[in-house]
Protein backbone atom coordinates (compact mmCIF):
# COMPACT_ATOMS: atom_id res chain seq x y z
CA UNK A 1 0.00 0.00 0.00
CA UNK A 2 2.85 2.40 0.84
CA UNK A 3 4.49 2.01 -2.57
CA UNK A 4 1.15 2.61 -4.33
CA UNK A 5 0.80 5.95 -2.50
CA UNK A 6 4.41 6.86 -3.28
CA UNK A 7 3.90 6.11 -6.98
CA UNK A 8 0.56 7.90 -7.35
CA UNK A 9 1.30 11.03 -5.29
CA UNK A 10 3.22 12.89 -8.06
CA UNK A 11 0.46 12.02 -10.55
CA UNK A 12 -2.29 13.26 -8.19
CA UNK A 13 -0.36 16.46 -7.52
CA UNK A 14 -0.01 17.02 -11.26
CA UNK A 15 -3.75 16.46 -11.83
CA UNK A 16 -4.61 18.86 -8.99
CA UNK A 17 -2.22 21.51 -10.37
CA UNK A 18 -3.68 21.24 -13.90
CA UNK A 19 -7.23 21.48 -12.52
CA UNK A 20 -6.24 24.48 -10.39
CA UNK A 21 -4.50 26.21 -13.29
CA UNK A 22 -7.26 25.76 -15.85
CA UNK A 23 -10.18 26.43 -13.52
CA UNK A 24 -13.22 24.41 -12.62
CA UNK A 25 -15.65 25.10 -15.47
CA UNK A 26 -16.28 26.74 -18.83
CA UNK A 27 -19.55 28.32 -17.68
CA UNK A 28 -18.06 30.25 -14.80
CA UNK A 29 -15.30 32.72 -14.14
CA UNK A 30 -13.67 33.89 -10.94
CA UNK A 31 -12.56 37.48 -10.50
CA UNK A 32 -9.66 38.03 -8.12
CA UNK A 33 -9.76 41.56 -6.66
CA UNK A 34 -6.72 43.50 -5.49
CA UNK A 35 -5.78 47.02 -4.50
CA UNK A 36 -2.75 49.01 -3.52
CA UNK A 37 -2.31 49.33 0.24
CA UNK A 38 -1.65 53.06 -0.30
CA UNK A 39 -4.91 53.33 -2.33
CA UNK A 40 -2.92 54.45 -5.34
CA UNK A 41 -5.14 54.30 -8.42
CA UNK A 42 -4.09 51.75 -11.03
CA UNK A 43 -5.48 53.11 -14.24
CA UNK A 44 -5.66 51.46 -17.64
CA UNK A 45 -3.10 52.80 -20.15
CA UNK A 46 -5.90 54.48 -22.12
CA UNK A 47 -6.41 56.90 -19.23
CA UNK A 48 -2.90 58.22 -19.87
CA UNK A 49 -3.92 59.01 -23.44
CA UNK A 50 -6.64 61.36 -22.12
CA UNK A 51 -3.99 63.68 -20.69
CA UNK A 52 -2.57 66.62 -22.61
CA UNK A 53 0.88 65.79 -21.15
CA UNK A 54 1.14 62.15 -22.23
CA UNK A 55 4.85 61.67 -21.43
CA UNK A 56 4.54 62.70 -17.75
CA UNK A 57 1.17 61.01 -17.39
CA UNK A 58 2.48 57.68 -18.69
CA UNK A 59 5.63 57.96 -16.55
CA UNK A 60 3.43 58.47 -13.48
CA UNK A 61 1.31 55.49 -14.52
CA UNK A 62 4.40 53.25 -14.68
CA UNK A 63 5.73 54.60 -11.36
CA UNK A 64 2.49 53.94 -9.45
CA UNK A 65 2.36 50.38 -10.80
CA UNK A 66 5.95 49.72 -9.73
CA UNK A 67 5.47 51.18 -6.24
CA UNK A 68 2.12 49.56 -5.51
CA UNK A 69 2.13 47.21 -2.52
CA UNK A 70 -0.64 44.73 -3.18
CA UNK A 71 -3.33 43.36 -0.95
CA UNK A 72 -6.02 41.01 -2.21
CA UNK A 73 -9.68 40.50 -1.36
CA UNK A 74 -12.05 37.57 -1.55
CA UNK A 75 -12.56 36.25 -5.09
CA UNK A 76 -16.03 36.30 -6.63
CA UNK A 77 -17.19 33.45 -8.87
CA UNK A 78 -19.68 34.35 -11.59
CA UNK A 79 -21.78 31.53 -13.08
CA UNK A 80 -22.89 32.19 -16.64
CA UNK A 81 -26.28 31.06 -17.93
CA UNK A 82 -26.04 31.37 -21.71
CA UNK A 83 -29.59 30.18 -22.36
CA UNK A 84 -31.15 32.95 -20.24
CA UNK A 85 -28.48 35.60 -20.87
CA UNK A 86 -27.86 35.99 -17.14
CA UNK A 87 -24.96 35.69 -14.72
CA UNK A 88 -25.25 34.67 -11.05
CA UNK A 89 -22.87 35.37 -8.17
CA UNK A 90 -22.79 35.71 -4.38
CA UNK A 91 -22.78 39.31 -3.22
CA UNK A 92 -22.94 40.39 0.41
CA UNK A 93 -23.61 36.78 1.40
CA UNK A 94 -26.68 36.47 -0.84
CA UNK A 95 -27.15 35.14 -4.37
CA UNK A 96 -27.28 37.97 -6.91
CA UNK A 97 -28.23 38.12 -10.58
CA UNK A 98 -26.93 40.15 -13.50
CA UNK A 99 -29.26 40.59 -16.49
CA UNK A 100 -29.22 41.71 -20.14
CA UNK A 101 -25.92 39.95 -20.70
CA UNK A 102 -23.82 39.90 -23.84
CA UNK A 103 -21.68 36.80 -23.32
CA UNK A 104 -18.88 35.92 -25.73
CA UNK A 105 -17.26 33.35 -23.42
CA UNK A 106 -16.52 32.95 -19.71
CA UNK A 107 -13.69 35.52 -19.89
CA UNK A 108 -15.46 38.16 -22.02
CA UNK A 109 -18.95 39.34 -21.12
CA UNK A 110 -20.97 42.37 -20.04
CA UNK A 111 -24.13 42.47 -17.93
CA UNK A 112 -26.31 44.98 -16.10
CA UNK A 113 -27.18 44.89 -12.41
CA UNK A 114 -30.79 43.77 -11.99
CA UNK A 115 -31.66 47.10 -10.31
CA UNK A 116 -30.30 49.04 -13.29
CA UNK A 117 -27.56 50.78 -11.26
CA UNK A 118 -24.73 49.96 -13.67
CA UNK A 119 -22.84 47.32 -15.59
CA UNK A 120 -20.25 44.66 -14.93
CA UNK A 121 -17.78 44.09 -17.75
CA UNK A 122 -15.24 41.27 -17.82
CA UNK A 123 -12.57 41.34 -20.53
CA UNK A 124 -9.79 38.78 -20.83
CA UNK A 125 -10.77 37.35 -17.44
CA UNK A 126 -10.35 40.68 -15.61
CA UNK A 127 -13.08 42.99 -14.42
CA UNK A 128 -12.86 46.09 -16.58
CA UNK A 129 -12.51 49.56 -15.08
CA UNK A 130 -15.34 51.94 -15.86
CA UNK A 131 -14.19 54.95 -17.87
CA UNK A 132 -13.35 57.81 -15.51
CA UNK A 133 -13.28 55.53 -12.46
CA UNK A 134 -10.14 56.08 -10.32
CA UNK A 135 -9.16 52.37 -10.29
CA UNK A 136 -8.51 51.89 -6.56
CA UNK A 137 -9.72 48.33 -6.88
CA UNK A 138 -8.70 46.21 -9.85
CA UNK A 139 -8.37 42.59 -10.95
CA UNK A 140 -5.40 40.27 -11.00
CA UNK A 141 -4.97 36.80 -12.46
CA UNK A 142 -5.34 33.71 -10.30
CA UNK A 143 -1.59 32.99 -10.09
CA UNK A 144 -0.90 36.59 -9.05
CA UNK A 145 -3.64 36.43 -6.39
CA UNK A 146 -2.13 33.23 -4.98
CA UNK A 147 1.37 34.71 -5.03
CA UNK A 148 0.21 37.75 -3.05
CA UNK A 149 -1.72 35.56 -0.59
CA UNK A 150 1.23 33.24 0.05
CA UNK A 151 3.70 36.14 0.24
CA UNK A 152 1.55 37.83 2.92
CA UNK A 153 1.45 34.58 4.92
CA UNK A 154 5.21 34.06 4.79
CA UNK A 155 6.55 37.61 5.14
CA UNK A 156 3.61 39.44 6.83
CA UNK A 157 3.94 42.35 4.44
CA UNK A 158 2.50 43.15 1.04
CA UNK A 159 4.50 42.26 -2.08
CA UNK A 160 5.38 44.97 -4.55
CA UNK A 161 6.07 44.92 -8.24
CA UNK A 162 4.72 46.00 -11.57
CA UNK A 163 4.59 42.38 -12.81
CA UNK A 164 1.90 41.65 -10.19
CA UNK A 165 -0.55 44.05 -11.84
CA UNK A 166 -1.87 43.00 -15.26
CA UNK A 167 -2.84 45.69 -17.76
CA UNK A 168 -6.39 46.69 -16.93
CA UNK A 169 -9.11 46.99 -19.56
CA UNK A 170 -11.49 49.92 -19.94
CA UNK A 171 -15.23 49.25 -20.20
CA UNK A 172 -17.08 51.26 -22.83
How is this structure best described in words?
The chain is an alpha+beta fold and about 170 residues long. The strands form two sheets. Strands 1, 2, 3, 4, 5, 6, 7, 8 and 10 form a nine-stranded antiparallel β-sheet that branches. A two-stranded parallel sheet has the order 9-11. The relative contact order is 0.19. About 30% of the residues lie in helices and about 35% in strands. The radius of gyration is 19 Å and the shape is globular. A hairpin with a 2-residue loop joins β4 and β5 (about 95-105). It has helices spanning about 1-20, 45-50, 55-65, 140-155; strands at about 30-35, 70, 75-80, 85-90, 95-105, 110-115, 120-125, 125, 130, 135-140, 170.
